[in-house]
Amino acid sequence: MSYVVNSSPLTLALSVALFFSINLPSGLCAQSNSKQSNAVSQSKTVARKLTPEQERGLRLLKTAVAESSGSQPDMHSFVLWQASHAYATLDPKQADKVSRDAFTATLAIEDRSANDRCAAPGSAGDIKSWIQQRVLSEMVHKDHLHEVEVLLPQATPSVRNEVTTELVRYYESKKDLMHAENLLALLAASGRYPFGAAADLVTKLGPEHSADRMSIFNQALNNFEHNASQSSLGDNDIGSFIERTWKDVPPGLVLEAITKVLEEAKEGGLQSHYSMSSARGSVVFDSDYSVRLFQLLPILEELDKDKAEELLREHTEVAEQLKTYPRGMESVNSENTSYSYGGTGDVAAKQQNSFQMRERIEDILKKADTDPDGALARALALPIHGTSESYSPRSDALLGIAEKSATKNASVSKSALDEFSTIQDQLTPREMIGIDKLPELYLKIGDLDGARKAVDVLVKAAGKVYEKDTDTNDPNRAFKGAWPSTNLWRDAIKQAATISPSLPEEVISGLPDADIVAFEKVALASTLVGGSAVDSRMFVADCRKNRVWGFSRK
């Protein structure tokens, strides 16, 4: 099989478009269009009776979308994207239309500078790519491949890369491995090569496709060699690719790959803290090279025992770890594996302390089922503030106990909530993000008055966070829809809707920012109409002069 690899963004876009027009499986687009036609036909023939609450939600939704048309392109695009999820349950046809409109609206968003540390490709700072990727990914999952074909060439380079990876996985899932392989070839020179998708493809190709397996393996290795300086350790990198595919290609090729990966890690000379922990155990290393040895030596022992033994003699700390975990990372990996990766010195110590604190909290919550009073006592012994400044250990533990005990032991749950109320004013703006479920917890124990007060707590907390987001000396430069304050207000409004019909709009009416008002109206409308929970797809981001952090919403 031959490949045409294009490295420039424009050429890549045209190649993807051309590939789609020539290579889509016959009948696939027709099938997709047929599905859409059936959906349209059904929407015309089946008139759903809306509840008064849903009708109110739809009115609010239309108002918010109309009002956003006068906003900046990024705000308008985001509101449309939110609205598409609100429409999803009641009017799928309208949801798809609004989703396409959101993509089109992103084209008017000005591109951020490549050197802008607040606008990493695909992050909430790069809201143009952020929305485009989600719109196109949803189209892939809905089998709307013709629309993807039309829109993908207009997307940003990072989105074309990510969505092409999605398409590789799509065709893998459909067992159309040749199309997946052709698409993967388009990413051969990408700085963000999808090693995980490539490994999936190699393992799915049967022995009769040995040449294709070798071709993909070489493609992945070549990409690593050309982009090694940009690579980082992770669960979908060149190391994990070799772990998963080494039995499917000739040993000589695997040995070449292991040698190159180890040489790169050694030459890089990075001293960095790396820890990996699961129910099976935990390991800690202080350099990239040690991590790579732990990962790849078990394979090397199978293919070149003399070389493996030589390396083990030279690196006794790795050898000791492999005595406990003879299959390396495979021995430690499980469903709930935790990773920590970062610098050395104080940074590493803080990461390790934070990791250990998380383990303490998890242990307390596990014991809350059998010994809730004891768990509560241990939670009260935790510090209010953690070393990482990203969460409050005591707050997390108290709210976790309140949630676990709500249905089994309401008195313990109430005690945990009461104890939380004594520290809530001491939480930092960043720690406040973790209290988003507070009203819900009061409702679970049947305390309606407590739930109302908890909404007020969230609203006031969001106000404090907003002051931090709008600090004139060092404002949050992330996209406003991803601000911590915006998300916390969204949580307050969503939960207020379960307490009183009028309470959410009371909250919205008191918001200090017109753009955030538009976001929150759509979020409320989505709750009222029963649309899909858009905030489960949201990202919280904070970008300042000397600090950038963020996380995906659960």
What does this structure look like?
This protein has 554 residues and is mainly alpha-helical. Among the domains are: 59-110 and 462-554, no CATH class; 269-343, no CATH class; 345-427. Helices cover 62% and strands 5% of the residues. It has 27 helices and five strands. A three-stranded antiparallel β-sheet has the order 2-1-3. A two-stranded antiparallel sheet has the order 4-5. A hairpin with a 4-residue loop joins strand 4 and strand 5. The longest helix has 22 residues, at 346-367. The radius of gyration is 26 Å and the shape is globular. Residues 1-46 have low confidence and may be disordered.
Offer a quick outline of the entry.
With 554 residues, the chain is mainly alpha-helical. It contains 27 helices and 5 strands. A hairpin with a 2-residue loop joins strand 1 (271-278) and strand 2 (281-287).
**Helix coverage percent:** 55-70%
Low-confidence stretches: 1-46
Shape: globular
By DSSP (H or I, 4+ residues per run), the number of helices equals 27
Q: Output the strand order for the largest sheet.
A: 2-1-3
| Alpha-beta classification | mainly alpha
Strand content: 5-15%
Gap between N and C termini? 42 Å
Q: Which sheet architecture does the biggest sheet show?
A: 3 strands, antiparallel
What is the gyration radius calculated from CA atoms? 26 Å
Number of strands: 5
The chain-level mean pLDDT equals: 84
What characteristics describe this protein?
single chain, 554 residues, mainly alpha, three-stranded antiparallel sheet, two-stranded antiparallel sheet, 27 helices, 62% helix, disordered N terminus
